[in-house]
Design brief:
alpha/beta; about 250 residues; globular; Rossmann fold; 4-stranded parallel beta sheet; single chain
Length: about 250
Amino acid sequence: MADSAPIIIGGNGHSGTRVFNEILTLGGVFTGISRITKRSASEDLRILDLLNRWVRPYVYGSLTSAETAEMKKQFSRRLRLYFPFRAWPWGFKNPRTLLILPFLNELYPGLKFVHVIRDGRDISLGNPFAAGNPYVDAFLSDEERDLPAEVKMILFWGRSNKQAQDYASVHMQGRYLMMRWEDLCDHPNDKSAELLRFALGSETETASIAQVVKRPKSIGRWKTYPRDIRQLVVAHGGPWLARYRYA
C-alpha cells in the first residue's frame, strides 16, 4: 500500500491547536508516540530544532535553492524517522506550520491541512508570543515595525492567516479546513465530527471525543484591556476581524 500523506494542524501561537490534535488522535490518527516524538506540555512534535533553523529564513524569503533543498531533506528525514509506517492516517501539529504551508504542500503532495484560527484580539492581547515573535516583522512594512507589540501582532495575525488561506484556496482545494477555535468550543460535538470527517473521510462517533474540548476563560480576554489599546488593535485589525467573523 502506498504511503498516505500527513494531516497537519497549524495556526497562530496559543490558538488552540493542541485540542485539535487531541481530537484527531482520539479519532484514530497516529500523531506520534508521546515519549519519543512529543513535548508533554503541548503535544508538539519534536521538530523544534528544524523549525527554529528554517522557518525564519523561509518567511523572510532569504533561502537559496540549495538551502531550500536541504530544508526539504531535513524535514523529510525527521518525519520519516517519527512516522515510518504510513499505511494509516498520520499527522502532527505545530502552530508554525501555518507559516510554511507552501513548503509542506510541496514536500507532501496530497497533505491535508487543518487551519486553526482564534480571535485576533485575544491573540494580540494577553498572548506571551506578542512580544519578541521573530516572524512578525516579515509581515510588516518598515514603518509598521515601530508600532506597539499588540498592534504588530494583530497585523501579523491577519496577514499570516490570510496568506495561508489564499494559498490553500488555489493549491489545496478539498485538502484544507479552516476552523475557528471559538466555534469548536461552542459546538464541540458537531465541530469534532466535521474535523474527523475532513481528516478521515468518514463519519466518526464523537460524543466521548468531544469531551476533551473545554472552553477556556481566556476567550474574550481582550475586553479586559484598557480601552485605548483595544481600540488601536481593532482599528489595525479591522479588515481581518471582519473577514473571519470577529468584527
